[in-house]
Amino acid sequence: MRPAATGNVRILEQLLRAGFDPNYMIGSHSSLVVAILGGHSEAVRVLLDWGADVNARGVSLFARGNSNPEIRKMFMEGLLGVVRCPSKE
Fold this sequence. Notes:
This protein has helices spanning 2-6, 9-17, 31-38, 41-49, 59-64, 69-76, and strands spanning 25-26, 29-30. It is mainly alpha-helical. The chain has a single domain (2-76), classed as Ankyrin repeat-containing domain (Serine Threonine Protein Phosphatase 5, Tetratricopeptide repeat).
């Protein structure tokens, strides 16, 4: 889905409302991974809101080391493929 790659949130939302799959594969990557790789934090949020699979191959890997601080923050907050264990107090 090209809007995920370019960060065009307006078009991305229109496509999702029209029924496009938020887990659409672009080559070997999901739309979510493509948005992460492009550093498009708003596109990432839209895809998450529409149910993109946070456990898709590459999500954690590419989010963890992303140059966009918003995407790294989403990763650290557990929104992008991280399962946090409760602390033992």
